[in-house]
């Protein structure tokens, strides 16, 4: 059970004081590790809130090459492609056809050569998600055993912890297992619902049905008990939990009614107002935008991961950055000239096909916020749910609500059947490119291939249901967990 060895089986308290005094936009200071015992942490609501704040801040953590703690030899040697949650999303993003990665960071993800059991991508993704899951379990257990906190506080933060735990088990299921509907009995993901201790032994992997049952149970509990109140948009509230639930139901595809209602609860029910955004052509870097439901805040002066923040630092070619990501000319051609999202430029005048276009969607500064979830995505999930429920007119109306907001010359779709679904999926790519790996996510869940155009720097075609859609189990986990064996990677 490598993840718990990595954590030293110690309780990490993240004490953040400044957020208690309020802030003008959003505050997530750097976490400070402390040795306070759990009895102290779970004696006071403010300290519990500080612990939760620290969990979210860990989403922006820099992860060491050898994935050891910073106080060990070789610690604090990190790389931009293992920079936190956004690094995992960007690794998915550049596995598709729409964007092209130069031979820079994420080049092995781009070429689909980064799934080996000993590779940094595999170890980071496993370790990152299981560490956060353990924090969530510590939180749930500490709240349950506390004799000092009132019931309302326990209920509130237990709901937060369950939403966090569900979110990260969902990431593990996406990254380390085949598509859920290929074979729901596949067992690759161990489940843990109690905090690790010095005596913990790694659990055996659970069938995907059990993994998704826990994810859905946690999310439904969270939705029921969370409120919309939160300290800022870096925190999960009821709307965000509904959004995560809607995403999960896109994968399970067994309750489109709930997918629609969860998406509507997330975006507020009025598609026309939900999709309004001022971020387009403004750098896509401000979580104050009303379209953003959830994101990473960057304070612009006190962060330690300035040059790790995907997608901005990789896609912006007009700032001091990695300047590593290009746009496929065929993807560019899917946007009309009147579409506000057509933010592509030929700045290099290059004869190299893959370098023809860059996107100016994302502007990189030290204060660039990062989107994790938007209302517009939820509107498109609702459209797909309506399509699958046989309500094609409603699906077209929802689709058009977004299209006409982005393009004044847009017209209501006349497509039906598979053509309508394809239009919804294309709109998801146009709206969300660079953000959450939507092209890879949709191909995997819908059992579709990813076929690259000849313009790519590396032309690789990924067949539907290919093993390239998921990573191997880290060798370090197989070596440390007696209930995992090498056959999982054969």
UniProtKB/TrEMBL annotation:
Query: Is Ubl conjugation given among the entry's keywords?
Result: no
Q: Which residues form the SusD-like N-terminal domain?
A: 120-250
What SUPFAM superfamilies does the entry give?
TPR-like (SSF48452)
Identify the GO cellular component terms for this protein.
Answer: cell outer membrane
Identify one Pfam family in the record: SusD-like_3
Q: Which family does it belong to?
A: Belongs to the SusD family.
Protein name per its UniProtKB record: RagB/SusD family nutrient uptake outer membrane protein
């Amino acid at each position: 059970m490598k993840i718990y060895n990595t954590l030293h089986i110690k309780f990490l308290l993240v004490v953040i004081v400044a957020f208690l005094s309020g802030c003008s936009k959003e505050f997530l200071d750097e976490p400070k590790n402390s040795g306070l015992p759990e009895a102290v942490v779970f004696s006071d609501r403010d300290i519990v809130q500080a612990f939760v704040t620290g969990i979210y801040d860990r989403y922006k953590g820099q992860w060491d090459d050898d994935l050891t703690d910073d106080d060990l030899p070789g610690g604090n040697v990190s790389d931009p492609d293992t920079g936190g949650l956004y690094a995992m999303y960007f690794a998915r993003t550049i596995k598709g056809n729409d964007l092209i990665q130069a031979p820079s960071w994420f080049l092995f993800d781009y070429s689909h050569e980064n799934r080996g059991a000993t590779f940094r991508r595999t170890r980071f993704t496993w370790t990152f998600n299981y560490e956060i899951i353990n924090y969530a379990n510590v939180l749930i257990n500490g709240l349950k055993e506390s004799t000092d906190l009132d019931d309302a506080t326990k209920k509130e933060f237990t709901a937060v912890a369950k939403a966090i735990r569900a979110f990260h088990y969902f990431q593990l299921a996406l990254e380390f297992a085949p598509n859920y509907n290929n074979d729901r009995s596949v067992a690759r993901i161990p489940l843990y619902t109690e905090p690790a201790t010095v005596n913990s032994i790694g659990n055996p992997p659970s069938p995907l049905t059990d993994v998704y049952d826990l994810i859905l149970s946690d999310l439904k509990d969270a939705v029921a008990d969370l409120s919309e109140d939160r300290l800022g948009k870096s925190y999960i509230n009821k709307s965000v939990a509904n959004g995560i639930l809607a995403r999960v139901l896109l994968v399970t595809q067994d309750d489109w009614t709930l997918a629609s209602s969860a998406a509507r609860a997330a975006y507020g029910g009025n598609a026309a107002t939900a999709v309004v955004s001022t971020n387009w052509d403004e750098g896509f870097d401000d979580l104050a935008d009303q379209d953003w439901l959830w994101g990473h805040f960057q304070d612009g002066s006190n962060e330690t991961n300035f040059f790790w923040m995907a997608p901005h630092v990789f896609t912006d070619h007009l700032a001091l950055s990695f300047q590593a990501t290009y746009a496929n000319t065929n993807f560019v051609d899917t946007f009309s000239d009147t579409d506000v999202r057509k933010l592509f430029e030929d700045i290099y005048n290059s004869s190299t096909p893959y370098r023809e276009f860059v996107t100016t969607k994302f502007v990189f500064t030290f204060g660039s916020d990062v989107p994790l979830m938007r209302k517009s995505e939820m509107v498109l999930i609702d459209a797909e749910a309506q399509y699958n429920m046989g309500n094609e007119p409603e699906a077209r109306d929802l689709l058009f609500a977004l299209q006409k907001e982005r393009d004044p010359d847009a017209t209501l779709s006349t497509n039906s059947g598979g053509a309508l679904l394809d239009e919804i999926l294309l709109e998801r790519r146009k709206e969300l490119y660079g953000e959450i790996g939507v092209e890879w996510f949709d191909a995997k869940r819908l059992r579709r291939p990813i076929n690259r155009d000849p313009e790519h720097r590396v032309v690789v075609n990924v067949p539907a249901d290919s093993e390239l859609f998921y990573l191997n189990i880290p060798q370090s986990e197989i070596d440390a967990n007696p209930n995992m064996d090498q056959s999982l990677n054969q």
